Amino acid sequence: MRGSLTTTAPDEGIDEGINDEGMNGEEMNGVGADGAGLDGGRVGVAAGAPDTFAAVAAAVRAGLTAPQKTLPPWLLYDETGSALFEEITALPEYYLTRTERAILASSSDEIVSAAGLPLEIVELGAGSATKTSLLLEALLARQPTALYTPVDVSPTALRLAVAELRRLRRLRVRPILARYPDDLVLPERTAERRLVVFLGSNIGNYEPSEARALLAGVRRRLEPGDAFLLGADLAKSPRLLRPAYDDAAGVTARFNLNVLVRLNRELGAAFNLDRFRHVVKWNAVASRMELYLESTVAQTVPIPALNTRIAFARGERIHTESSYKLTRTAQRRLLVDAGFQPEARWYDARKWFGLTLARVPARRRSRLGAS
Ligand code: AVJ
């Protein structure tokens, strides 16, 4: 398995893919249709598709009129934001992606076997699926065909995922554009067992209560015996964490500031990017990195689509993202609290990042006729 992976070069071609502008849902369907073995089907769009004008407007109004101004992290991932995040994952300071990839590179076969074959894989927040391809290759080495359902709020990310996986000819890809798990309706299963994977420490974006609810929501959509794989960054020294969120090249700053560009474009807002700066804080009590956009001057910013103006004091911050860093015990606890049974864990040698495989236990009260 290792041998075949060395030719994968998961990062190659990603920049081209991202800059491949003008692609839309239909073209993605085209990708699906002309790749033998890929689902010719349409990209599934769950009810209440994400990022509608109304959703953006409501989130921005609620967030920017609160005493502590906030913007929800999903706003960061428009087309540009998703591309900038891909750039972040390749930064020398951002150890998360390459560490997780290294664990997957050495343990994918063990992971899919432990989950229990045959399997189909559903991925929440699939991104470009470059890491997941390692799991999928391991799966295809053990079963003749497989179904992969990437779920993401970003059409850009789903297009990249489909493009990345075209080379796996025995894989069928069925992308779903949805905000998970609320809007997620999983199509009929095609294998006995589902493995839902949630990688990249995306769980870290959520407040602890939200994270629990999200995982519990996933668990409720699964059947007893199904599996869940959580990839999450581990608590470590802020001296290692801070640079990962405040890189020397300033890519994370651009990623963060891009949310204001988005509000200018989508809501007609008049944020001046020269009057906000990217600020990063380690919150030791909550065990999380916090990203802010700080107003460098006292200013009032009109947001015509909301029919409002937002006043900023000099030094006032908008909280744009949190990135929780759990200990190994806290990761386990989170899964247990969401109703999963943790079964196995994989780490890198430095124990910077962890992958935990958990099981959906048998129902306590079984419905009549349920299997
Ligand atoms: C995509 C949420 C995992 O928290 O590390 C990276 C997002 N923000 N740099 C993270 C992010 C700034 C990232 N996650």
Give structural notes:
There is one protein chain. This protein is of the alpha/beta class and 371 residues long. The protein has one domain (1-362): Vaccinia Virus protein VP39 (Rossmann fold), CATH 3.40.50. It has helices at residues 2-5, 14-19, 25-34, 53-64, 79-89, 95-115, 132-140, 155-165, 208-220, 238-245, 251-267, 328-337; strands spanning 44-45, 119-124, 146-152, 171-173, 176-177, 193-198, 227-233, 276-283, 288-295, 299-303, 308-312, 317-324, 341-347, 353-359. Helix 3 (25-34) packs parallel to helix 8 and helix 5 packs antiparallel against helix 11. Residues 1-42 have low confidence and may be disordered. It binds N,N,N-trimethyl-histidine. N,N,N-trimethyl-histidine binds next to helix 11 and strand 12.
Number of helices: 12
Task: Calculate the terminal CA-CA distance, rounded to whole Å.
Answer: 35 Å
- In sequence order, what are the helices and strands, one letter per element? HHHEHHHEHEHEEEHEHHEEEEEHEE
CATH topology value: Rossmann fold
Largest sheet: 9 strands, mixed
Rg (C-alpha, Å):
21 Å
The low-confidence parts are 1-42
CATH class: Alpha Beta
Number of domains: 1
What portion of the residues fall into strands of 2 or more residues?
15-25%
In total, the number of strands is 14
Determine the CATH superfamily.
Vaccinia Virus protein VP39
Which architecture would the CATH scheme give at its second level?
3-Layer(aba) Sandwich
Structural class: alpha/beta
Work out the helicity level: 25-40%
Mean pLDDT: 85
Ligand identities: N,N,N-trimethyl-histidine
Shape: globular
